[in-house]
Amino acid sequence: MTDKTPRSTDRQPAQTRRRAFGRFLANTSGATAISFGVLLVPLLAAVGLSIDGSRILLTRYHLQASTDAAALAIATVYDDDDTLEDLAEKYVEKNFTLAGARLGDIDVDVVDEDLDDDDIDEENTVTVSAKASADTLFMSIMNVSQFNVDVSTTVKRAGGGLLVSLVLDNTGSMWGGSPSKIEALRSAADVLVDEVFDGELTPEDLRVAVVPYAATVNPGAVADSIVGPHSYGLRDPSKIDGWKGCVMERAGADSIADTPPTTATWTPFWYEPAVDNNYDPADSTTIIPGGLKNSNGIAGPNTGCPTPITPLTRDLDVVEDAIEALSAWNRGGTLGDIGMAWGIRSLSPGLPFDESTEIDPRTGATLWDSPRWRKAIVLMTDGDNLFYDLPGNSGPNTAHPGNSDYTGYGRLGEAQANALFGTSNKNTAKTKVDTRLKSLCTTAKTQDIIVYTVTFGSSPSSSTKAVFQDCASDLGKYYHAPGKETLENAFGTIGAELSKLRITR
Questions:
Q1: Which one-letter DSSP state was computed for residue 102?
Q2: pTM, full prediction
Q3: What are the CA-CA distances from residue 335 to residues 241, 353, 456 (Å)?
Q4: Residues 174 and 150 in one domain
Q5: Domain presence at residue 12
């Protein structure tokens, strides 16, 4: 018999249960939306913070790079604070080009610490600080509409010391003028020296050399050590009939190269008796020294030999004495290439002048190699490069049948000069000396020597002015001075520039 008892009403079919669960879900959908809305705000804030945070990092990176470049650039400049801030602003503005960002204040702080012998660790530094800002993209929903970035860079100041050689024309034409051009040169050189020494008697971070030149150069105290065997005796400037110290330049490329005396020695300059240098070597009363008055009627073995070179020194008194001793030396001519060659030798670390091998205690490098030290040459002339030839009678002298007086290259057209210049023509030789001078200026500049040039008076031709302009490190470092006042102004301006290349106390 079949059981037909009804099933319990508590047991619903599966389909009914599914419909009931669906109705439940439908009834709770409002609560789910509320929960999602509550979570949406912090979710958007997190995304916005991530995006705007990346923009902050990018802005900081670009601003830091721009500030680094500015600090490195102005660390090489020694000037007043306003000038440094102007330069820093230009460098940062040029390099910071991030779209949407705005530059704020740019400041410069310079710290120049005095150094004692017992305390060499103090630093001379320059700090560039910069600010920038930009609008946020997403963080404004959290009431943050702008972000700001501050950065700074501190670097050690470049340079810090100065090696400078004053290569000065001391030829006979410097007697001219009223007051004489040699007096004007002494006065102008004093102005320059006052600027670079800046009231210090023996500054730690300055070395100055003085290189007088004419048709030859006098190496001074080192002369005995750089010449080969000879019969003229030891250098003795006190004896008018003795060897004063001037030298004949070497042969070939060594004539203007910075090769040491161990590679090629010099020969003593000794102007033998001749019709244009009429004296008796056995009778000192027949010798008429130069450098005392404006005259071509001088005679003796040292005719045309100028004042000795003063090697690099930090002693103001020594430099001032060297300038006071400058004089004009008639005869021979003007050979600026010889002067420039010795100007480079006075700075370079090799013999015969090795003063720049002194060790910089702050870096452990030589002064020549130390990144703290700058090198400069001031080259001055009052006329064209030329081989002078006595034209007629003067004192005991008469014209020589050759092509020039005796010089550091010998007589033009004779063996030594002919080997170098290949001509007996004075104009052709002038062009070749000019070319050699320009080559030396290029050599100096490739050795990071800053070259200043000055032409003085009415004698320099337009071609000589062009040569000296080319020789200068840039157009702003060439000066033409028509007279005494303008020469002092030129030397004063150069001295002021040079003083910025060293850290003053």
A1: E
A2: 0.73
A3: 25, 21, 16
A4: no
A5: no
